[in-house]
Amino acid sequence: MKSKIFMYLFFFSLLLALFMYMNQKSIYESQEKTISSLNNKIEEQDSSIAVLTETIDDLGYFKLQGNDNAMTYLENLGKDPAAVESEVSELILEMNLEKGGNPLIDYEGYGEFRVNHMKFLNHRWVQAEFSDGNTWGEVIIEYFYNHDLELELTPIASVLYPN
Fold first, then answer.
1. Which of 95, 97, 80 is nearest to 139 (CA)?
2. Which strand ranges, in their side-by-side order, compose the sheet holding 125-131?
3. How many separate domains does the chain show?
4. CB 117 within 8 A of CB 130
5. Residue-level pLDDT at 62
6. Could you tell me if 81 and 75 are in contact, meaning their C-beta atoms sit under 8 angstroms apart?
7. Is pLDDT above 80 for 109?
8. Same domain, residue pair 75 and 122
9. What's the predicted TM-score (pTM) here?
């Protein structure tokens, strides 16, 4: 009788061990599959980040902040590049308030043309987008500090997009 009990206990523990092994194996395979899919997602996102970083670097190629030669030129004049950006931006936006629209824009529209957005290309040029609410265009503006360190703005070229 004792031998039968031990035999039943042995088979029961063998079945229990087999069940635990199979359960752990399925859990392990499931975790491996999850880890593999997460690693694939990480690789995809890393490649997306690399592409975006390259795109950001390309977009930031023409800008005042980060262009060492342009910043050195302004610093030699005794000007801080960030302050120059602010000063030029404020002056262009103040010109929006003039009667008849911004004088840097030499087009006539349905209303008064106003500069909406600007991008500093370097220590000399600003690309600006303008609109009268119906028509849109862009202008390249040269900014320059004369011998008295007074800021001068000159429109170089502009384009008006057809409606």
1. 95
2. 114-120, 125-131, 136-145, 151-160
3. 2
4. no
5. 80
6. yes
7. no
8. yes
9. 0.67
